[in-house]
Amino acid sequence: MKGDPEERAVALGEYVIETGATVRAAAQKFGISKSTVHKDLTQRLKKSNRTLYYGVRKVLELNKEERHLRGGMATRHKYHPDQP
Length: 84
What we know:
Low-confidence stretches: none
Radius of gyration: 14 Å
Number of helices: 4
Order of helices and strands: HHHH
Mean pLDDT: 88
Largest sheet: none
Structural class: mainly alpha
């Protein structure tokens, strides 16, 4: 998604809030780098839409708290793909 960075930041913010997506998942969905997503959500969005920024920040903090769980599940799936 090319174009205006502020518009992209708002679109990313809305997507993250609606889906609870991680930075990695949002980057893949929009076809941009993780660095760009992170910059859009933490810097550009803060300047252009504070309300949306605070909502996104809550989701990002939750994702950060849960990242060790997702890593453990990925490892389990790697070695035992038949188990949930």
